[in-house]
Write a structure and sequence with these properties.
The protein is about 0% helix and about 45% strand. It has strands spanning about 1-5, 15-20, 20, 25-30, 40-50, 55, 60-65, 70-75, 80-85, 100-105, 105-110, 115. Strands 3, 4, 5, 6, 7, 8, 9, 10, 11 and 12 form a ten-stranded antiparallel sheet that branches. A two-stranded antiparallel ribbon has the order 1-2. The mean pLDDT is about 90.
């Protein structure tokens, strides 16, 4: 799997990587994000793309082989990455909102933090 995210308003860097897929991707809607604070807030997650009229797209998790971790789970979305907001916020997605943030992708080591799109949401 070749993975690229160009510099964009959701993420100010660019990324080009290659991963060995170890299984199918599944659509996700929430993720406990532990890199921003030790408690790891539960967040809504969406893919973000370059369509100005409809930038939201699905976000996915996929098992991959990663040289530093071995088995890892790639969280990815559109060609502009993924975007997060805490589930406690009842706001529309907005690139200018300081309570939301974008990433090109995340690699996680454990699926316990993932809520799949076909599961009821956690709050």
């Amino acid at each position: 799997m070749y993975f690229e995210v160009d510099e964009n308003p959701n993420w100010l860097g660019s990324v080009s990587m290659r991963f060995k897929e170890l299984g199918p991707a599944r659509t996700i809607k929430q993720l406990r994000v532990s890199d921003r604070d030790s408690e790891g807030p539960l967040c809504w997650v969406t893919g973000w793309c370059d369509d100005a009229k409809q930038p939201l797209c699905p976000a996915y998790v996929q098992p991959v082989e990663e040289s530093g971790l071995g088995l890892a789970y790639l969280i990815y979305g559109g060609n502009w990455g993924v975007r997060f907001k805490p589930v406690s916020l009842n706001e529309d997605w907005d690139l200018k909102n300081p309570d939301q943030w974008g990433e090109p992708f995340l690699l996680i080591s454990d699926l316990r933090s993932v809520v799949y799109a076909d599961e009821p949401p956690n709050h």
